[in-house]
Specification:
Elements: H1 2-79, H2 84-111
Helix pairs in contact: 1-2
Amino acid sequence: MWTHHHHDAEKLMLYLSVVTVVLLLILTLRIETKMSQLDTDIAALTAQVAAGVTVIQSATTLINGIPGIVAAAVAQASAAGATPAQLAAIEAIGPALAASAGPLAAAVAAGTPAAPVPA
């Protein structure tokens, strides 16, 4: 009779071992699925942040470049015969824009929507 109980105990231990392995496999698959979703969410968020940074950098580059564009236009107009009196108002635009570049860039940054947080 002891042999019969010993054999049942071995079967039970084997069964428990198989159940444990199956449960560990299920848990591992669930963790891998969640990690894959997390990787996807992080990639999407990174792309959204990069797009926002690109918009801000592009606007800042444009804003900072306007005084140079104005200066080149003034030089061309002067070479074409415009008088200093005619160019005075246009020349004043360059320094005014240069002085406001920081606040304009900040306004662009403030107006750029924040990247949504993945659900």
